[in-house]
Amino acid sequence: MAYRVHSRALIDGTGRDPVDHGVLTITDERITDVGSASTGDGDAGGLDCSDLVVLPGLIDAHTHMGLVEGDTLGGMPAAMVAAHLFRNAELCLASGHTTAREVAGADGGLAQAIDAGLVPGPRLFPSGPMLSQTGGHGEFGPPFLDHHHHYTGLPGLSEPSVRCDGPDQVRVAARNAFRHGATQIKVCVSGGVVSLTDRLEDVQFTVPELRAAVEEAEARDTYVTAHAHNIDGILRGLEAGLACFEHGTFLTEEVAAKMAAAGAALVPTLAVIHLLATEHERYGLGEYVVPRVAGVEDAMSAAVVIAMEAGVRVGSGTDLLGPEQNRRGLELALRSRLHSPMDAIVSATRANAEVMRIADRVGTLETGKLADCIGVDFDPLAEPELFDDPDRVRLVIKDGEVVKDLDGRS
Ligand SMILES: [Zn+2]
User: Fold this and answer.
1) Cβ neighbours of residue 72 closer than 8 Å, sequence gap 6 or more
2) Among 33, 149, 223, 224, which is most buried by a count of CB atoms within 10 Å?
3) Residue closest to 53 by CA, chosen among 100, 91, 2, 96
4) 105: left (phi over 0), alpha (psi -120 to 50) or beta
């Protein structure tokens, strides 16, 4: 089946200027033509979105839809974990994010449920549990309970992290993640903001450990991304061949140049930091995060600018945690303050698709791509802060199918 989407303006995600009255032709699940009203034939059967600006479906390259429990890890019934997880997937799609990379939390089980049409949600690229050394960022349990109390989640649903030490254990953990449906591997090379037993400045995993993860990923034609706040962690990751770094808080010009030379990408995550600074209780986290968050948002904002100026490919992630993850558009709002709103949009569309190695399928509105697009009732270049309100995303199309339609257009 083919139909046309008639827009007020069309932003295609490549960074090109908007096309007034752009028209998208969708045939089954693909885009088969991109033009403007003057090139279209004014068919009556099209979807009239002449009051909306149409953009590519947004991509969130750093999600934790499966991390719903906060400080109560292991204390929530599996049914509640599942219910919150499915709700987060639905909210993700409703916010206009038609593709997501889960970097700890939901495993391949959620991707299967979404692909089968049982749960509304984005096209999901799960990493499985993040690989963490003993005492590293992935340690969520109390420090004086023994090894066996390390919380390993609910395989087939949500797996926050796996503890592994030494190249052999890292290799097994990576293989298991792939066995559970991972499409790439996530490791921790630095301490974290919500960690219990490390500092942001700490460096985690040795080069041989990281190299084992890279070998396993490359054997499956994919890559490793790393939780990394500090530059020593990034340098160690570059040495081991990591393709992508999350957060990048304390990035310097020198290290950014090395990332650019290696073709490594950065996925900054401002939204969660902004929210933790103001609403940590809502996210089920203790007072301990407040001093850890102080200054991180400013430092990470500076890192974004440094990375872009150095020519690093910069994607976009939210890192939202907990239940009711309904602030995904905040990332675009915050990024738009650092550079142009168009750059923010490109980061969350084409650049993220490149980071995730799926640019042949999604990320831009171009002929041949999967038909993922959204319609918003505001000017994203003039008022990007309105991305933070999911109700302003009036229409969402995924794989050519209308999956959100607040105005009954379809
Ligand atoms: Zn994260």
Assistant:
1) 284
2) 224
3) 96
4) left
Q: For residues 403 and 410, give the distance between their C-alpha atoms in angstroms, rounded to a whole number.
A: 10
Task: Decide if 257 contacts 310 (C-beta within 8 A).
Answer: yes
Q: Express as a percent the part of the chain with pLDDT over 70.
A: 95
Distance 193 CA to ligand 1 centre (A): 9
Instruction: Dump pLDDT digits (tens) for 359-388.
Output: 999 999 999 999 999 999 999 999 999 999
What's the gap in Å between 222 CA and the centre of ligand 1?
Answer: 20
- Count of residues making up the chain: 410
Least-confidence region, from 50-54, 147-151, 184-188? 147-151
Tell me the domains of the chain and their CATH numbers: 2-57+363-405 (2.30.40.10), 58-328 (3.20.20.140)
Instruction: For residue 74, report the distance from its CA to the centre of ligand 1, in Å.
Output: 19
CA 261 distance to own-chain centroid = 24
- The four Cα atoms 167, 173, 176, 177 give a dihedral, to 10 degrees, of -120
372's tokens: 């993922």
